[in-house]
Design a protein that fits this description.
It is a single chain. Mean pLDDT is 76; it is low at 21-41 and 120-139. The chain has a 17-stranded antiparallel sheet that branches. The chain contains four helices and 17 strands. It folds into three domains: 1-33; 43-118, C-type lysozyme inhibitor (Lipocalin), CATH 2.40.128; 126-253, Lipocalin (Beta Barrel). It is α+β, with helices and mostly antiparallel strands. It is 18% helix and 44% strand. The chain is globular and about 55 Å long. A hairpin with a 5-residue loop joins strand 1 (41-48) and strand 2 (54-60).
């Protein structure tokens, strides 16, 4: 009897050890430790109201938030809440609620509606090619805008605050001369559409891969790009002016 008990215990130990190594191998092979980055699409869209006012809204399904810039907001984060219909997001600190239903966004402050805008979905927007752009608008731009890549250095805000980019060439902005803009950040890469007429410049409809990177400044950078309304190039420096005089982004010419 004692021998049977001992053999049973030994058998259980062997099975347990085998199960442990099998599980370890599975975790290693499938990335179950969560060390591999998960790539998702972040959707940034521009909503405009009947008066021509617009906001940039970044939908982040990974953490169930939206970030709003423009029309008086800069990088304002709303967290998704439970709703019976549509998508409801809330910013309790400022008593704001954002509703998204299809291609429409409505923002409430308390019970008052402060913004209602619509957007053309990103997936319905054709990829720009040379024939989609007005050649006079492209040729009117300073050629240095799209013949060089530009490295973000800092942004000076109207409040007097300076937002400084990480040291190095982590944030590189490029224009292709045909209406497409792309950028690398300290975490991901993104692309979008731009229009230019002389020194008037706007960017939007960004899509980006999403890797989680702790302490990344990507969110601030992308939100500011969505607010750009003009540019100036002086030597090796480019300055992007933000909507409603919120601030100025400063870039230097890339060495690469």
């Amino acid at each position: 009897m004692k021998l049977k008990i001992l053999l049973t215990i030994l058998l259980l130990i062997v099975v347990s050890v085998g199960a442990y190594f099998a599980l370890s191998e599975y975790v290693f092979n499938t990335g179950g430790t969560n060390e591999e980055s998960v790539m998702e699409l972040v959707n940034l869209q521009r909503f405009s109201d009947e008066s021509g006012n617009s906001i940039e809204v970044t939908f982040n399904p990974e953490n169930a938030t939206v970030t709003v810039s423009g029309n008086g907001y800069i990088g304002l984060v709303f967290k998704q809440t439970v709703s019976a219909s549509g998508a409801r997001y809330e910013n309790k600190e400022n008593d704001l609620v954002l509703w998204n239903n299809g291609d429409e966004v409505t923002i409430y402050k308390g019970d008052a509606v402060v913004f209602v805008g619509t957007v053309k979905a990103v997936e319905n927007i054709p990829t720009p090619v040379t024939t989609d752009n007005n050649p006079s608008e492209i040729s009117a731009a300073n050629p240095e805008l799209y013949t060089s890549a530009w490295v973000w250095v800092h942004t000076d805000l109207l409040s007097g605050e300076r937002v400084t980019a990480p040291v190095g060439e982590d944030f590189v902005l490029s224009f292709d001369g045909n209406g497409m803009v792309s950028s690398f950040t300290d975490c991901n890469s993104l692309s979008g559409i731009y229009t230019v007429d002389g020194e008037v410049l706007s960017m939007g409809q960004f899509v980006s891969t999403l890797m989680y990177c702790e302490a990344s400044m990507e969110g601030v950078y992308v939100e500011q790009l969505g607010l750009v309304n003009s540019y100036v190039i002086e030597g090796d420096t480019m300055r992007l002016n933000l909507d409603r005089d919120y601030g100025v982004m400063t870039f230097i010419r890339s060495n690469e």
